[in-house]
Amino acid sequence: MTTSSALDGVPIPPTEATAPPAPAERRSRLLALDGLRLVAALMVCLYHYTGRGGTISESWHQSPSEIFPTLSRVSVYGNLGVQFFFVISGFVICMSSWGRTLGDFFRSRVSRLYPAYWVALVLVTGASLILPAVVEPVRLDEFLVNLTMLQQPMGATRVLGVCWTLWAEVRFYALFALIVVLRGVTYRRVVLFCAVWTLALVVCRTTGNELTDQVLMPEYAPFFIGGLALYLIHRFGGDLLLWGIVAVSLLLGQSEATRGLWHPAAHADFHRDPYVVVLIVALAFATVAAVALGWTHWASWRWLTTAGALTYPFYLVHEHLGWFVIRVLHRALGLPPRVTLGATILAMLLLAWLIHRLVEKPFGPRLRRALKGGKPAGRSPRAGF
Questions:
Q1: CB contact set of 351 (below 8 Å; sequence gap of 6+)
Q2: Helices within 98-133 (DSSP H only)
Q3: Which DSSP state fits 17?
Q4: Is the pLDDT of residue 379 over 80?
Q5: pTM check: above 0.85
Q6: What single-letter DSSP state applies at residue 80?
Q7: H or E element: which one contains 256?
């Protein structure tokens, strides 16, 4: 049951401060979400190892479509794991920012993203110096810019191939923080944010303006917006308005994904069927919706917590370092392709676990505390950063 605001007409729950779900219910739902994050990461990983050409073909010494003729026809769609990530990100960011100040939000994002990212930069740069045939080493000035995570808008060479997605995430965080988190996250503000961003991205498509494209991200925004609305469904229950936002996001998102990934003249070895693209996008929304509705209580295995923790460092290191390992195992040591593929994925998961245990767990909280520092006296928590 909802009521309407006379001020803006946006329906809001009568108890906006409704308590969150019970701990056991929340835990089981989020464990399933952790599992979905790992699935999305593995989709992208298989795409980089078996679903494309380029550098990976050099590591295998032939096209993955020839080595894995069946698997490559599936893994060619693996890059849609990025869109899957964005839906999950919308859900998680809305959840984690509830009740937090702008400063809390900023510190949580910086301490979550940067420690593992900096380590990945060092590891990939070191690998590029050992085996530059796989990864071209960058100049010192470019490496230093990469430390900021702003190398893409600065036009510097990227050390990590996957970091373009982080630039999209950063823009989403900035928009959400400045428009919603700054004044406090509420149902009404998130709904208005979703509605205004949707309208703006559609208008943006008609202008051809690069600045508005960079800010509004029409190719990725529907996935973030859909995730935000799904979290509201998770927290407050579904209604026609929220499901309408999800439906519009799905319709716009599948259009953007198909436009970006389906190329009729593409090489036959890595061809994508537009119907399959639409299906995978729909499944991404559907699986997060299942979590939002509480249909995943059965997925309560403790190992899913570890899976979720490994996802980010695994995503950062798997591409270039994986190509490096494949080249060593397959071309230098002569291991069979399937053994090489399995060993490489396991090696990247192990490396991700080490980064999580040795870097993220000890240094993430320290960085968060260091960023908090001392607050000036006489200022309210809401006014401060």
A1: 123, 313, 314, 317, 321
A2: 102-130
A3: T
A4: no
A5: yes
A6: G
A7: helix 240-261
